Every structure is written in structure tokens, then in C-alpha cells.
């Protein structure tokens, strides 16, 4: 039972070939767009590399880039096949390649679908990575004299200013770390000594934040020290003050930014999936129609185009059998010298039957 | 005496027409690019309109936009003339239009050159405009409750952070204005009262700067207040501290940004000017070569092309004479009417 049979007259075949040629070039352009999207996403992730703990999220742009390149190649081959399809002398050379082409195109579609799923699923991993990365960044903020960490301060400052955020969850994260380096602390002063004695680890903790947390939209010049003390500043109330500092945490800000970026690639990837599948189906119809007409030896006649020669179930059985044969063949060859297969036994029997040179 | 006479055999004329057609389409694209560059410059100037006192410098992008559009029209026209040039029946209908066309084209080409010169010459005007604009911005920094000025603080803060600058000339400009609003000052405190009494106008002046002057590249957490007092901060020396705040003044930063933009655009427009000039010169040669062919039975003869029929001086006089006559006539009428009442 043939799957989805369509009759193809000469005119229809020509239209199909032309339409498919155009569609495959469109797919090449979309593949290039996907590649560029992948490169852009990768670059954005690399820019903020220092506040990320691991690179697991890089799998999304990597797959996008691979799929983009593969899509360009696959669809370019498709357009070449289309050009040759109506020429009976040039089409046969593509016959062998087409099976492989279908496999590659199917794999591409699957990869594209997986990218869409991944870009939603990876949010949790991204947040974890940012949580650890930002925590370290805030901890090492003061270490501007330690090699390998001397740019943490600048990175965190520029990050907070650019994304309009403060701290990991919020600005209170800065109260729990010593972000003023000991190089700039006067250890003879009473205030410093008090603060250091007030906690177990001997850290200089204060209820203040760096300048990069300041919100320019505030009507008041920025208050960044003694934040919890209402009396320290005139006309100031800690609980109700909203505009003075950025209220959003940097983890939230960065997660939102990257999820928005990845979600905006969603529609593009979905349309590429649709185009790729239509190229795949069109190519199958074209292949079967042209092969049919070549078998009939009447180039102007009518032929049948179909998706699968037998039903879906039977085709799967066929493929399974073929795969098993291939597997056996591959397994038999390496084991042949000492193997227990029938061929080896036959060979042995032949050897015994024929006179040996030694005897 | 003819200016720049050249011989044009038939083949050369054909090649000239074809080359000119291609060149005029390139010049059309270049004209569109000029218009786009003018739009970009205008947008950038308007973004920073709040720290500029006057809009004198806007004459540069305005001229660029006008010239870009005119250049589009001129070059499309030129390409149409080229297409008809080698066709003896269709070329004569352009004859009447060509003289005013050349006059208009020359005017706009000269205007393009003027725009390029202006983009280099407007530096002084830009600088004085920014000086006044920034001075006002810093003065009104604290007026976040005054309608019309409530966004000055945000603008100045974002400007200083984006251009990595502080104050007008440098950060000391902030020492001379009260940038903290009275709403946030405790007038019962001794310190506030002292500071207000210390100057004639009763302003709260301090040796501190807003947070937007802080330099993130500094290894030390930012010191904003008591900048001139070395003993107020540990291990701090006012004279030698370089990385704490941005050292550059915002006027200098903005001037160098805009001059960089205008110089780049000016260089691009100069090449467009050269392209446009070559289109006009080639079109003139084509016109004069084809006019010599007109009336002849054999269209493949060799003709001469030239730029100007008479010398430069004579051509200029030819253009100016009608204008002079118009003014002289007016004068004569004026003199006649002023004499008339004198007659008894």
C-alpha cells in the first residue's frame, strides 16, 4: 500500500522541480540566518563569561551554528538535484546520494526541534550558573591586587551599571561580604576595629553598596553608606526608599536578558523547521516521480509520486532487516578468522577436503 | 577659446555614454548614502540636545540631507539623458532642459562641498554651545522637583556614565555649584549651617561629586566626598589620585565624539562630491559631442566635445550679465523716478 500517492504530469513535474529549486535556495538563506543567530548568541554569552560558572548553556548556540552550516550544505545539494532532475542523463548520478541526503535532512529537523526544546529547558541551568558566578564575583570584588581576579571589580561594576541591577538577589548581598579591600582600611580607627570584631571571620562588613548600584533616576543624590540607619540621612526611610538603588538582582536581570534572546530565536527556528520539512517532502516526491518516469522510458508521460513505497509499518520492518544485515556483515568480517559463523565452518570443511601442501 | 576640447570618435562616444550611465547609478546610490549619513548625524545631535545651548551645528546634517536628496534626483536625470544620448531622435528633446539642469547641478555640488567644509569648521560653535549647555545642566542638577528641569539629573548622570567624563572642564566644576537639593539638607545640623555661611550666596557647596563621576576601573571603592581632604580617607592623596574619578571633562568628551563623527562623514561626502563632479563633467562632454552630431546624416562621424564654449571668464560674464542688467534696470528706474519730482 503506497503512502500518499500523487499523479505527476510532465508540467507538474517541471513546476515541482522549479518550485523546489526556489524553496531550497530560500532554505539556504534561512540556514545562513540560523548560523548568524547562533554566532550572535554565542558572542553574547562569551561577553558575560566571567559571571557564569559553567558553559553548559553554550550547547544552544553551538547546535544552532552546526545546524545552520549543515542546512546551508544540505539545501544547496537539494537545489543541485532539482536542477538535474529533469535531465534524464544527469539525474542517475544523484540516486545513491539521495538516501543519505534524506537521512541528513531528517536529522537536521530533529536537531532544530531539540534546539527549541532546549532553549526553554536550559533556563534552570543558566540560573544556577549565574548564581554561583555572581556570588564569586561579589566575593572577589575587593581583590583588585590578586592576579586572575583583578578585573572582577570592573566587571561587576560595569555589569551592574549596564543591566541596572545590584547584587545577586538584591542589594543586601553586598552587606554580607567585605567588598572594601583591607589595603584601604585604617586598622587603628575605632570604627574599623568595631566592625571587624562584630563577626566571627573578622571581615569588615558594612551596610553599604558600591557606586554602581546607584539609580540615576532617583531625584536624590545617591545614598550608598549606612543604608539601614534612618537617622544617618535627612528625610530618609530605609523601608520605603525605592528609587535610590537598583531594586533588581543581577541574576534575575541576566536570566531575563538571555531567555528573551533565546525565545526571540524561537519563531525563526520554527519557520526553518517548516521550510526544511517541505523541502524534504518535495524532494521525495520529485525523486519518486522522476524515477518512475525513467523506468517507463517515456519522458513526457505521467508518473506516480509517493512518500513511501509500502506502508509505514512495512517500511520500518524493511529498514530493520536491512540494518540487521548491515550489522551482521560488519560484525562477521572482523571475527571471520576464528569465528563460529557458517561461512567460517564451510571454509574449514573445504580446507579439510582439499589436500594440504604439508601432507 | 574653448575650454578642454577633446575629440570623440563614435566608439568613444558609445563608451562614454555607457560608462556615464553606470557612473550615474553609482552616484545615485552615493546620494542616498549621503542622505542617510545626514539623518544619522541629525539623530545623534538631537539625542544630546539637552546639553546643547543652540542648534547652530544642525546646519551640517540639514545641508547633507538636502544635498543627498538633490543628488538622487540629479543622477537619476543624468542616467536618463545617457540612455537617450546615442539615439538621434530622442536626444533633442533634452536640449532645452540641459542648461538649467547644469546650473542646478553645479549649485548642489558646490553646496555639497560647503557641507564638507562646514563639518570641519563647526567645531568652535559646537564647543561654545556645549559649554553653556553643560553649565546649565550642572546648575540645574538638583532641581528634580522643578517642572521642565526634573530630568536634568538623570541626563547628566547618564551622560557622565556613557561618555566616561565628569563635569564641564573637569570634576572641580561640581565644587562650585550646589548639586544637592535643599529638600535633603538638615538645616539644623552644624555642618550644613557652616557650609551655607561660608559663601556669599548661601549655597551648600562641598568638595564632592555625584556617583556618576566614579571610574569603575579604579582598584579602590569610589571616593565621592571630601575629595580635597587627604586625612579623611586612608592611604589617599588628592593630587596624585588618577583612577578614582573620570578625569576628562564632558565638554571635551562630547566635542571629540561629535567631531569624530562629522569628520568621518565629511570624508565620505567628499568622495561623493568627487563622484558627482565627474558625472557632471562627463555629461557635459557627452552633451557637446552629441550636439555636434545633430543634423548630420551620418551619426558615426567624429566630433569634438568641450567643457565650455568660451573661456571661463566669458562664461561667467554670460551668466552674470542678465542678473546685472536686471539690477541696473531697477537702478535706472529708481533714478528716473527720483528725478521726476525734481522737475518743476
UniProtKB/TrEMBL annotation, chain A:
Main location: membrane
Gene Ontology CC: one annotated term: membrane
Protein origin, superkingdom: Eukaryota
Membrane association type: Multi-pass membrane protein
InterPro entries xrefs: Peripherin/rom-1, Peripherin/rom-1_CS, Peripherin_LEL, Tetraspanin/Peripherin, Tetraspanin_EC2_sf
Compartment annotation: Membrane
TM stretches of this protein: 20-43, 63-82, 94-122
Pfam annotation, one family: Tetraspanin
Region Disordered, residue ranges: 337-359
Gene3D superfamilies membership: Tetraspanin
Alphabetical keyword list: Membrane, Transmembrane, Transmembrane helix
Stated family: Belongs to the PRPH2/ROM1 family.
Name of the molecule in the record: RDS/peripherin-like protein xRDS35
Species this chain originates from: Pagothenia borchgrevinki (Bald rockcod)
TrEMBL record, chain B:
Keyword Transmembrane helix in annotation: yes
Membrane topology: Multi-pass membrane protein
Transmembrane annotation, as ranges: 59-79, 100-122, 254-275
SUPFAM superfamilies listed in its UniProt record: Tetraspanin
Residues forming coiled coils: none
UniProt xrefs under Pfam families: Tetraspanin
InterPro entries named in the record: Peripherin/rom-1 (IPR000830), Peripherin/rom-1_CS (IPR018498), Peripherin_LEL (IPR042026), Tetraspanin/Peripherin (IPR018499), Tetraspanin_EC2_sf (IPR008952)
GO CC annotations on file: membrane
PROSITE patterns assigned to the protein according to its UniProt record, in alphabetical order: RDS_ROM1
Superkingdom of source: Eukaryota
Cell location: Membrane
Record key words, sorted: Membrane, Transmembrane, Transmembrane helix
PANTHER family referenced in this protein's UniProt entry, alphabetically: PERIPHERIN-2, TETRASPANIN
Family: Belongs to the PRPH2/ROM1 family.
Protein name (record): Retinal outer segment membrane protein 1a
Amino acid at each position: 500500500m503506497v503512502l500518499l500517492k500523487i499523479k505527476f504530469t510532465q508540467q507538474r513535474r517541471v513546476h515541482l522541480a522549479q518550485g523546489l529549486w526556489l524553496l531550497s535556495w530560500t532554505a539556504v538563506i534561512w540556514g545562513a540566518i540560523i548560523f548568524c543567530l547562533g554566532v550572535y548568541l554565542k558572542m553574547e554569552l562569551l561577553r558575560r563569561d566571567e559571571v557564569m560558572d559553567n558553559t553548559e548553556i553554550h550547547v544552544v548556540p553551538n547546535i544552532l551554528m552546526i545546524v545552520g552550516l549543515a542546512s546551508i550544505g544540505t539545501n544547496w545539494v537539494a537545489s543541485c538535484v532539482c536542477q538535474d532532475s529533469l535531465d534524464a542523463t544527469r539525474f542517475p548520478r544523484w540516486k545513491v546520494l539521495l538516501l543519505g541526503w534524506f537521512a541528513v535532512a531528517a536529522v537536521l529537523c530533529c536537531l532544530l526541534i531539540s534546539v527549541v526544546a532546549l532553549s526553554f529547558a536550559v533556563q534552570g541551568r543558566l540560573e544556577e550558573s549565574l548564581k554561583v558566578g555572581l556570588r564569586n564575583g561579589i566575593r572577589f570584588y575587593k581583590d583588585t591586587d590578586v592576579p586572575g581576579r583583578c578585573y572582577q571589580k570592573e566587571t561587576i561594576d560595569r555589569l551592574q551599571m549596564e543591566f541596572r541591577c545590584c547584587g545577586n538577589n538584591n542589594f543586601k548581598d553586598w552587606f554580607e561580604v567585605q567588598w572594601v579591600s583591607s589595603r584601604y582600611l585604617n586598622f587603628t580607627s575605632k570604627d574599623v576595629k568595631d566592625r571587624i570584631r562584630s563577626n566571627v571571620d573578622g571581615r569588615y562588613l558594612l551596610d553599604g553598596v558600591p557606586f554602581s548600584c546607584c539609580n540615576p533616576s532617583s531625584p536624590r543624590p545617591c545614598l550608598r553608606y549606612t543604608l539601614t540607619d534612618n537617622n544617618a540621612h535627612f528625610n530618609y526611610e530605609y523601608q520605603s526608599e525605592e528609587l535610590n538603588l537598583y531594586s533588581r538582582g543581577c541574576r534575575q536581570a541576566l536570566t531575563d536578558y538571555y531567555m528573551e534572546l533565546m525565545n526571540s530565536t524561537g519563531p525563526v527556528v520554527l519557520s526553518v523547521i517548516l521550510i526544511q520539512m517541505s523541502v524534504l517532502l518535495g524532494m521525495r516526491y520529485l525523486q519518486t516521480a522522476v524515477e518512475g518516469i525513467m523506468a517507463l522510458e517515456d519522458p513526457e508521460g505521467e508518473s506516480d509520486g509517493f512518500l513511501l513505497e509500502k506502508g509505514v509499518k512495512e517500511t520500518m520492518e524493511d529498514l530493520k532487516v536491512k540494518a540487521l544485515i548491515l550489522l551482521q556483515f560488519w560484525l562477521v568480517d572482523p571475527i571471520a578468522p576464528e569465528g563460529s559463523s557458517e561461512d567460517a565452518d564451510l571454509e574449514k570443511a573445504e580446507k579439510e577436503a582439499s589436500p594440504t601442501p604439508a601432507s | 577659446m574653448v575650454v578642454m576640447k577633446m575629440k570623440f570618435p563614435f566608439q568613444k562616444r558609445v563608451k562614454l555614454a555607457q560608462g556615464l550611465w553606470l557612473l550615474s547609478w553609482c552616484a545615485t546610490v552615493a546620494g542616498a548614502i549621503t542622505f542617510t549619513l545626514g539623518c544619522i548625524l541629525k539623530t545623534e545631535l538631537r539625542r544630546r540636545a539637552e546639553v546643547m545651548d543652540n542648534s547652530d551645528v544642525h546646519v551640517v546634517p540639514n545641508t547633507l540631507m538636502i544635498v543627498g536628496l538633490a543628488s538622487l534626483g540629479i543622477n537619476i536625470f543624468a542616467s536618463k539623458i545617457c540612455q537617450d544620448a546615442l539615439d538621434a531622435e530622442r536626444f533633442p528633446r533634452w536640449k532645452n532642459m540641459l542648461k538649467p539642469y547644469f546650473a542646478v547641478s553645479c549649485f548642489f555640488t558646490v553646496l555639497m562641498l560647503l557641507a564638507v567644509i562646514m563639518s570641519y569648521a563647526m567645531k568652535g560653535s559646537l564647543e561654545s554651545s556645549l559649554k553653556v549647555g553643560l553649565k546649565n545642566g550642572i546648575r540645574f542638577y538638583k532641581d528634580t522637583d522643578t517642572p521642565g528641569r526634573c530630568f536634568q539629573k538623570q541626563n547628566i548622570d547618564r551622560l557622565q556614565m556613557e561618555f566616561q567624563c565628569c563635569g564641564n572642564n573637569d570634576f572641580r566644576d561640581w565644587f562650585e555649584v550646589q548639586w544637592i537639593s535643599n529638600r535633603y539638607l538638615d538645616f539644623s545640623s552644624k555642618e550644613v549651617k557652616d557650609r551655607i555661611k561660608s559663601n556669599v550666596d548661601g549655597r551648600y557647596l562641598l568638595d564632592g561629586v555625584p556617583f556618576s563621576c566614579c571610574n569603575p576601573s579604579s582598584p579602590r571603592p569610589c571616593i565621592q566626598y571630601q575629595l580635597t581632604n587627604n586625612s579623611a580617607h586612608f592611604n589617599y592623596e588628592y593630587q596624585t589620585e588618577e583612577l578614582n574619578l573620570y578625569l576628562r571633562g564632558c565638554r571635551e568628551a562630547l566635542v571629540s565624539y561629535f567631531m569624530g563623527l562629522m569628520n568621518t562623514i565629511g570624508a565620505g561626502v567628499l568622495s561623493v562630491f568627487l563622484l558627482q563632479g565627474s558625472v557632471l563633467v562627463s555629461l557635459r562632454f557627452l552633451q557637446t559631442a552629441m550636439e555636434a552630431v545633430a543634423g548630420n546624416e551620418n551619426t558615426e562621424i567624429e566630433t569634438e566635445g568641450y567643457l565650455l564654449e568660451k573661456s571661463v571668464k566669458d562664461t561667467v560674464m554670460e551668466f552674470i550679465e542678465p542678473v546685472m542688467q536686471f539690477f541696473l534696470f531697477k537702478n535706472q528706474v529708481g533714478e528716473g523716478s527720483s528725478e521726476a519730482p525734481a522737475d518743476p
